[in-house]
Structures are given as C-alpha cells and as structure tokens.
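Instructor's aside before we start: the two examples that follow are unrelated to each other. I chose them only because their records fit on one page, so don't look for a connection. First example below.
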Amino acid sequence: MSRPLLWSTFISLAGLTATGPSVLAQTREQYQAFLEASATWDMHALHEMAQRLGASPSGGERTLGLLVLAKIDYREQRLAASMQKLDSILQYHGTGEAELLARAHREKCIINTDLQFLPQAVREADLGLALVDSSTAPGLYAELLVAKAEALSEIPEYNQAHQLLTQAYHLAEKAADKVWMGGALMALGNIQYGQRNYDKAVESYRQAIQVVQDASNQVAVHAISNLAAASAMSGKLDPARQILDSLLTVLGPKDPALQYNCMSILGFISARQGNYAEAVSRYRAALAFADSVGLREGRTKTKQLLATALWNLGDRAQGLALANDALASAQQEKEVATQVELHRRLARWQNILGNDRSAYEHATTYAALSDSLVKARFNQQLIQADILFDTERREHQIERQKQALELAYVADRRKNLQRILLGLTVVAITIIALLLWRSLRRKQKLGEQERQLHIQEVNDLMRRNEINTMQAMLEGQEKERERTAKDLHDRLGAMLSTIKMQVGALESKVEEAQAEQHGLYERVIHLLDEAVGEVRRIAYGMNSLTLSRFGLAKALEDLCDNVRISGKLVVELKLYGLEQRMDRRVEIVIYRIVQELISNVLKHAEAHEISVSVTREAGRISVMISDDGKGFDPSKASGGIGLDNVRSRAASIGATVHVDSTPGHGTTVSVEGALAE
C-alpha cells in the first residue's frame, strides 16, 4: 500500500498571516483570499484570482498573481511550469517581500520533495526560514518547519524531522493555532507510518483530529484518511473500512487525490481479508477514477497491487501482464522502490510458471536494484550531512562577526580601556572554555569510538566462534553418518549376506522336505533379500556415496529421481554452473539443505509439483525450492526443526534463508550466499 498523503503537499492553510513589513501589506486582503482558496482547493477561485491579479497595474499584486499561477500549475501536475514561476518570483523581486519569498521557497521545497530531490528540498526550506521570524510570522514559520521535516523524513532522517515537528507544534501551540498543531501531529504520524510503527501513527492521527475539532477542515480530513491507512496496516481491517466508507460519502470533488487514495486503501483491505475479487474491482475503480481526473501519482503502486490480486485470484496471465506494465511505468517514472518490489514478485511468479531464465533475470535485477537503492539513500544522507555542516559553519561565522562588531561598538562608544580589557578577558575565557570543551568532547568521542570498536571486535569474535562451532558440529554429524553407513554396509550387510549363504546351503535339504517347509524357506530368503536392500538404502541415504564420487549435480539428480512418483508428484530440477566441483563441505551443506526442504514438502505441503533450482555464478551460490502445496503464513509459523536445520546449515557457509509463502498458494524457500572461488 502507498505511503500516507503528505500534509504540506496538499494544504496551505488560511489564517496564517505575518505582521512583518512587506509589499503584501498593500494586498493583504488578496493574499488572505489566496490562502483560503489554497486551503479548500477552490481551483475556480484560484483561476479567477490569477486572471484578476495578472491584469493589475500594481507590482505587488502581479507578484502575488505569479504565486497563484505557480500554485495552480502544481495542483494540476505541471511541476516544471510551477518551478519556473517560483524561480521568477525569487530572482526578480526584492528583499522587502520577505514573506512572499519565504512562501515561494516553501512551495519549491514541496515540489523537490515530490520529485525526491531531497537535499534541494531541505535547502529551499532553510532559505525560507532565514527570511521570516517565528515571533512575527509563526504560521508561515511552522509551515516551513513541517515542509522541511517531511523532506528529511524521506531521506530518511527521522530524528531531526521529529525535532522540527516538535518545534512546529510548540510554536503553533504558543500562537493558539489549532490547525497547525494538528498539522504537526499528522506529519509526525506520517513519519511513524514510514517507520512501520503503525500503532503510534494511529495515535498521532487521532490526536490531530481531536486538536483540530473540525471534521470539515482539510487537516482533519487527511488525518482521517491516514488513520484508516495505518489501521489497515496494523491489522484493524474492519474499522479501517468503516472509516474510509464514511469519508468517501462526505468527501467532495475538491480533493481527487484523497478520493483515489481512499479507494486504493479499500482495495488493499479487501486483499488482506482474502476477498481478491472485491480487491480487483476496487483497484480497477480507483484507476478508472484517476484516469477521469488526470491523476498520475500512485498509479504504478495500484497497478502492482491489482496484479497481485489477479494472480491470487487465479488469473495468472492477466496478473503477469499487468505486473510487467506496472514495471514499465515504474521505470519510466524512476520509482526505484516499486521496481525492486515488482522484480522480486515477478521472479517468484516466473519461477512458479517454470520460466527459469526469466525468473533468474528478474532475481538478478532485483538484487542489483536493492543494492543501488541502499547506496542512493546512503549518498543522500551524506549530502544532507554536508549541507547541515555548511549551514552550521556559516552560522558560527555570522556569530563570530556579530561578536567582533559588538566589541568594536563598545570601544568606539565608551572609549573605556577597562571595559575593553574586561571584554577581551571575557572573550579569551570563552575561547579557552570552548577549546577545553571541544577537547573534552573530542576525548569523549574517541573513547566512545574505541568502546564501539571493542564491542564490534568482541561481536565478530563471538560470531566467528559460533560459525566454527556450527561447522564442527555439522562435520561431526557427517563423519558420524559416514561411520554408521560404513558399519551398516560393511558389517551388518556382510552378516546378512553370510546368513543368506548359510540358509542357501540348506536349499537341497529343504527341497526334500515337505512343501510347507519349502514355502517357509522361500519367505525367509525373501525377508533376507529385503533386509540387505534396506541396509544398503539406509547406508546410501546417510553417506551419499554419489555426492562424494560424482559431485553435487549427480547427487541431486539421484535424490530427485528417488522422490518422483509417477502421476502423483512431479519433481523438476534445474542446475546452472555446477560443471566444476565445489568445496566438499559446501556440497554436503547444499545437498543436506535440498534434502531437508524436499522432506518438509513431502511431510507437510501436500504438493503435486516441486521445483529445485541450484545456480552457481561468480562468487555466489543460489538455491531455490518451490512447491504448489497448501503453503502457510511465515509470520505465524512457530518454526519447526526442519527450517531451523536449514538455517543452521546455511549459516555455516555464510548464506541466508528467505521463506516466501501464502496460505493456499505454495511456498518458495531461497538460500543465497557468497562462494569462495
């Protein structure tokens, strides 16, 4: 399901006016009307205002008209045109219009956040904050704080975003502005939603609704919508459905984006409840509504959810086609996170359909995109840290310049040597204290770094010891298997064969005996043959001589041949890159993992088809076992000995295990790990 709607993206609230001097004093009534129209999304009023202000001879009104046009362009998804108009306001208008310029910076921050140009968004918010004073324009200052917090939460930089929202809330509380108190609470709920802390998000949204105390206000409307989304994600599906149904009945045509979001969430709820037919209907209705009003944002995610619902409904062909269409849209829109999810899902679906090459390509792309996404987020955090460092450095420079001017002012005005000396002494003491404080801080940081390094070394040592212990245990198990198998084959098998020979020596005497005794003799011979064969099979299963002599590929082929049951169980084996032998320990671990997983399928899954895929490529080994059995819910599974054994064996070679299963739709277990060449 898509993220909750960002508050600052949709609302510029009425009643947030500044008292500082600017040319807006000449157009204060018009400016107030612009804020009210923006708050209610009255596009008709905004268009009329833009036409009237654009024809005005007043420069201040024409500037305000340009801001109105930028707002219209943004609401109608013409982001580039909106950005150009905002740049014109900032480039060609003087510093006397500080409030207007600050609002232009805020709008640019919102657009950059939508486009995921997050460092630029933070920079625009800082430029706006530098133009206004929290004491004279508390509303606009709070708006800028919330806009910056939402940009930081996308990086993600949750701690700093939380601090900014707390500052915005207290500022609005001091100004008795309930609307922006609620706005700050709702933005906090969005951060908690992004952190998947849905219960806390629900509480923040409820507090926002209670603070605003006006169900028609846009803060309350969006808080109600996001409350439903968070409730659905936390598993409270029926209350979420009731909230959304009530909201859609009272929601007017002024907010198509919110209507579309509510319709999509209802589809998600239906899918979570297992009603895939209803989910398909709701997702299609949401997409049709988006087409009718020209909405683009969020369509790709809805297509992905619709494809999943169709697949779960049994319409695999249409689900696969729609997933590929959603992937093309995500690539065009550069939605990397959605691409990652679609490649992961398509890899699993193609594997189920038996399209191994396509499944492998999607899995490879999924791994590459996941790594690039993590790297991009890390780079964004580095850029943000550089920006914050530069900002702090400039603030220190400004502060030092102010101190120097104050000292010069005292020297010129009073010409008192004693005060000058006292001032210099104070400055010297301050500098010394600062140097001592910085030295102490540096020592504390070095001590903390050494402590963390020591903890890391201890953890690494414990992890290596744990792996060595696990490897020793597994090697001991294999040696015990070999010893037992050898004893069974060489000693017990030989003894049974000797008994058979001794009994065979009685054959001539038995033929002379009665017919009843002859039948008893034949039964004894038959039982001895079965005992010898069973001993050999047990020894083979424990020791896997084929694995030792001919390698992993041949051993897996024999294992799958033994499991197949004609007409009842189909076992498909795909092997890539196993022409060359691997380390014996790795081959044994892979073989035992496949053996354990197939045993689990036979015991629990009630499957008709099993697919085994083992791929070896440069520096990596990949194992995937899929079945079409009854599946299970991994989040509710208690965890049996079989899966624990698989995870232990995988950990012994540095591999990880991922279980993907849905009740009624089979199970896929994948094992991925590095491989020393």
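Example two begins here.
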Amino acid sequence: MKKIFIVFLAIFLTLCLANKFISAEDKVAPDAGGKKTRQVLAEVNSRKIYTDIFEKLIQGRSDPQTLIDQIISFVLLGEEAKKEGMIANKEVSAQLEMLKEHQLAQFLYAKEVEAKAELADDEIKKLIQESDKYKVNFQQIVVKSEAEAQEILKSLKNGADFNHIAKTRSIAKNASKGGQIGYVIPNTGYFEGELSQEDEKKIFRLKNNELSEPIKTRQGYAIFRSVSRKDLSDEEMDSRKNYMMYKFKKEKIEQVRDSLLNRLMSNAKTEIMDNNIKVLEKAEKVTDKHMEMVMAKVNKQEIKLREILPPQRGEYGHQINSPYLNQPGFLKNLITEKVNNILFVEEAKRLKYDNNDEFKEEFDLLKDGLLGQAYAMEHLKDLKPSDEELKEHYEQNKERFKDMPERIKVRHILLPDEEKAKEVLKKVKAGEDFVKLAKEYSICPSAANGGDLGYFSKGRMAPLFEEAAFKLKNGETSDIVRTNFGYHIIKKEDHKQAGASGFNDVKYEIEQNVMIQKRDKKIKDIIADLKSKAKIKINQEALRKYESAASSFPVMPSSPDISVPVEP
C-alpha cells in the first residue's frame, strides 16, 4: 500500500516543485491565426492532458509510459472520489485548500521569480573567465588553534615534511592521506561554507609548492599547499560552465524573490506571536489544544499552529514533538515560511493567477491525486487477511522461515528530554503500567499501541537502541537510552533465537506482508476495472518523443568532479 501512495506523492511533489520548463520543440506555439495551440498527450473520458503539463511532471524521467499510466490512474480514482462525495469530507476539504494555496504560491514563484531571473547573454559570457580555465591540486593541514598553525607553518618553511605533519597532527578527515584534497576547479562551490570568497581566491593564486598563511575555517586553522595545476579539459569546462550558470541563476532567483517579499511585506500587516512560541518551546508535549494557538497574523488572517504543522501523527506523534524541531528558532522559521507563503498566495490572487487556465490544469491533477488517495484509503481500510490466508502464506514460504535471524519484541517510551525521561523511568520502576505510561508520555507513534514495536532483528533499529534492547532479559526494563530520536525507556517482552520458526513465531511479520499484498492487489484491481470502463486515448507518437528526450531535460548540475591524485 505504501508503494501505491508513494507513487502518488512523488507525482504531487514533482508537479509542485518542478522548474517550469518547456522544451524548445514542444513549446505552446501560435497557429496561423495567432491563437495558441496545444498538443493533447492523452484524454481520459472528457479530460485532456496536454504535453506542456506533462513536461512539468516528466522532468528527466525515462519512463513516460509509466508516468502517463499513473496520471490516468489517479484521474480515474479522483473521479470516483467525487462521485462518492469525498470532496465534501471536512478533512479532505481542508487538505485540498492547503494544497491549492501551496500550488498558488509555487505558481506565483514560477511566474514572478524564476521567469524574471533568466540569465541574459552578456551575463552568461561573464561566467567563465579565460584566467579561470584551470584546476589546482591542494593539500591541507588543519589544527585547532592559530598559534599551533603558525608553529607548523614555521616548521614547514624550514623544510619539515608536509605529508608527515598532516598525518600526525592534522584534525581533518583527510589527515591519513597526508592532507590530500585533490584537484579543485575554481568557483565550483567545493570550499563553500569553509572559506570566505577572499580566502578562496588567495589559495587559488598560490604557486606550485607554495604555502598559505593560516586561514580560519569551520574546522579550525588550515594551511594549504598548492601541489600542482592543470588546464581544464573540454568536458570539465562544460561542467564548470553549467555549474556556474546554475549558481548564478540561483543567486539571481534569490535576489528577485527577496525583492518581491520585501515589497509584499511593506504593504502588509504581519505579526508573529513570540509569546506563544515560548509557550510551545516550554511545553512537555504538544496537545490538540496547542494546535489551535494563533502563531501569526497576516493582515486580518490568523495562522494557527495546525496550519503550520498539520495534526497527523508522524514519526514523533505531533511533528513539533520531534527533538529535531526543538532547536532554538526552528519553529519561528516555520512560521515565517508560512507567512511568506500567505503573502505569495495573496499576491497570486491579486494577479488573478487562481483563474489562470495553466494553474487550474496543474491543480486539477493534484486535486485528483489527493482525492484518489483518499478514495483508496477508504476502500482499503477494512481489508485484513484471515488466519487461513496467513497460514497458507506460511506453508507456501516455509523454506524462507527456516533461517530466520535472532529477533526480539519490545515496547518503548520515547521522551524529548532527559529530565522527563528520568521522571517517567521513576514511575516505571515504581511498578506503574508500562503500556499506560507509553500511551500517556511517549512521543513516538507507537504510543497508541502502548509503545509496541513488534519483533525486529539486528540491524533494523538505531545502534544504541538495538544494543540496549538485545541485552535485556524478557520482562526487563532498560535505563534511559539516548539516540538521535530522543530518550528511550525500553521493555523487552520476547526473544526468539535464530533458526526455523513456527507459524506463531512469524505471524506478525506474515500479517504485515500479506496485508500489503492484498491492498496492492485490491487497488490494482480497482484501477484496472476503472480503466476498462473509461474512454482513454493516448497519443503514442507524442509520447515516444519523451523516451528519447527525457534524458536531455534539465536537472540541477552538481559541482564538477574532483580527481584525487594518488598519495605520494
């Protein structure tokens, strides 16, 4: 089932986040009368899917036939959802409204930011200077203090071996390789975040075997050595040019975006509720009551926490309960992003983009996808395998269960901070019911099931969690175990040794697998039935163009490859 929904979500995100790109060959072009004509790629009942919309989805994929089949599937599921009145469902309606606002903001961004940040020919010519057509092979030594760096630099100037000092004293990851960095091409972002632009220029000006003065970096103080330099190959030049174009375009987009936001901010009345942010930061656990708190105001519109963090349970329960989200300023940044999004939406409506035909077509696809997902979930929610099906699966796969790994069954309580974990552990040791405590205090989704994580083998959980859990005896409870997720209290309930397993030993695992298989088959059957009754036409000639053209669609370039030389 997850696979099916992932397909839908992947398409949603592609359409929402894709650059607004139309290939030169298939741009919407005027006909002889000056009126724009569009090519139809597919027709589902009376619904037309045009090539220019499809191109925003394909974005480098090499499977256009699969993609158009997926689009057709969720269009048909969306139609069924509408027939069943799901669009009137309160939760679905709220999700659709949020989706529409998000897409409106994206549409405005494409039209008023990306489209206005195109590079002019003279800007592109300036990207590559003749003097920059080279790469430099660097070594480095990084130490914690400037005084130590100065002492090492003095030794190097007096003839000390760079490789030896790098191996014995450098704190950089490449210390064991004599501080070898390899060949680096100027202005490709390799030193971004480590060196200032001025310091980067300094090291690229070093002559062969010349040493830099100590330079402050994120790791400490670095001494760079320029080992050698080479001219760039044609391939490297192309790579560098593409990267520079991407980088410059990104910077220009940021400038246009910031200018637009500043203008919108100056014409709006916005307020962020800092006091409510402080209340949330101090809260032990976010409740449904917290979700109704007003976090900001934009003109006359109030923004509640549930609009920033939708109240569905995630990996940590309410998203804000994640220890990753308790970092100072994180919540305020989310609120600021929401405020900016609302300003974009208001501007999009002012420019009447919500009535734009292109926007409507994009949103209709997204709406069908969301409705199709809701339809699938509704029709699959009661689909459960019977005991007979589980036993049949076991008998058919007995060979697989002969070599089952060692595994254990545990419950846990996940807490966001150590003090709260100590408080709950005290209650556990006092004999209070573990299941009840998990339901009350744990911020993990498993809280709803009393912290039950089921059976798992080694290699499935966070290493520290797993190590502590496997050491416990059946019925025993751990002390506090800290992982990246937070603070855990673990209770071991069962332990199964490696080897052949009986039906009851693997029933839980079989149930999960069979459930996925049944739901997958059910949704495929539903889609097949809908397709058999629908009127579907696909322009195969137009579709075939994408099979050869997909790989040439633009993707975000990466920094040019760096060839690391063999250590001398």
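The CA atoms of residues 122 and 128 lie 11 Å apart.
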